[in-house]
């Protein structure tokens, strides 16, 4: 393992100190609870948006705290859910009297810890908490016999869109409805060319031969649908888009197309892949209203990428275009 | 006859701490095969925090066990933290006041703890989770108790059934938790959560009678 760290046991704490050194002009850090907060939180009358999850996916979620996105993010250990104490601290800190929305990716640990936090903070502080659980990964086919589809790329788009709506002053019920619409209208599929290496494990989570790729990879190195021969960019783009379009009809409205690097795939390849994907979508009669290309939801040092398509009506496009100012995403201000 | 108080519950947790510590590597190895290779280290970290609690600071068994549950939720993380935490919180809430502890009273508490786990994890028996240890243990306990067995004998029956339930997870295909993403590939592996939960019941049988 070759990593720029001091101690595997303090990777997350050390990284949060570094984030604070870089970003303390606009973010506040609760190191005891490993919570990253907007400096101006809580904003009176605004619904607070809290997300969180295991570390190792940066810039998600801490890098999406700021104007027009999250109010707070809880950082768990690498690939490990945060605990309810962290979520309770974050929720109490961002409640401006209008309630708090938890944005949770569908993983067993994350869902249970956020559930407990919501129950406990409602009881202890009287804060109204609602939750949206994202589950957009089409690689998990049979939700009846599994923990269900994983929350992946749609989470980033949802934090941007619902964050903009919260900034406009929409109430908790309206935000929850919007969040459900975004989650329901988004689908993702990923591919890995190499494994990632979890610092505490010290070795790659899995191994792929030089000419293999894992189709349908999760963001923690969970297995995908199948291990297949590596193809050209054109062929891989075809496989990813095909899996998404087979799951949901995207011809009815324009889409936001999101190509997300998983950590070690250069932007050169990500743009190359975006070109292939845009061509395939055009061939299927699908209009791209907006796009996002870059490494926004990573899996440590994994090479590979994911594609997310989101049905985008006028409201969603307007919210997408609204100003955002976070370390990971910034435009319009 | 056992006398229910914080110290009795602390004896249970102290025994469990020792067992989890000795078996932490084995639990992590089981988790490496179908999960994310941290169940033993997570449980050991949680039980170490529990062992640091002083039973003398709690005025009842229920108060002590509730603190144990909250401590596990805060320190174990992952899915095991909420599941073990919920189990002990609900178990504690259903305990009678300190004093005599009968087999029937214990059955009520155990049943409440299991209901909590099932509600939290939305798992049923057969999903290859710790529920596969708990449900057979409860059935065996209730059968023994209704047949007139005392707490010690009922717990002993429960511990045997828990171990059988743990072993019975080996051929199952996981339908909950991270192992479920493996589908058929989760077969022929013993579930780590069912394994640690069997230790909880076995430890109760050693210490609560």
Helix tally of chain B equals 8
Give the helix proportion of chain A (percent range): 25-40%
Q: Spans of chain B of 5+ residues with little confidence (pLDDT < 50)?
A: none
Mean pLDDT of chain B: 96
Strand content of chain B: under 5%
CATH superfamily of the largest domain in chain A: Dihydroxyacetone kinase, domain 1
- Derived from helix and strand composition plus strand pairing, the structural class of chain B reads mainly alpha
Q: Which pair of chains has the greatest number of interface residues, and how are they split between the two chains?
A: A-B, 26 and 27 residues
What is the molecular shape of chain A? Answer: globular
Number of strands of chain B: 2
Pattern of helices and strands of chain B: EHHHHEHHHH
CATH topology of chain B: Serine Threonine Protein Phosphatase 5, Tetratricopeptide repeat
Kindly provide the name of the CATH class of the largest domain in chain A.
Answer: Alpha Beta
Strand order of the largest sheet of chain A: 1-2-4-3-5-6
Q: Secondary-structure element order of chain A, as H and E? A: HEEEEHEHEHHEEEHEHEEHEE
Number of domains of chain A: 2
CATH architecture of the largest domain in chain A: 3-Layer(aba) Sandwich
What labels would you give this structure?
heterodimer; A: alpha/beta; Rossmann fold; Hypothetical Protein Tm841, Chain: A,domain 3; 2 domains; six-stranded mixed sheet; B: 209 residues; mainly alpha; Serine Threonine Protein Phosphatase 5, Tetratricopeptide repeat; two-stranded antiparallel ribbon; 3% strand
Short summary:
The complex is a heterodimer of chains A (333) and B (209). Helices cover 32% and strands 23% of the residues of chain A. Chain B contains eight helices and two strands.
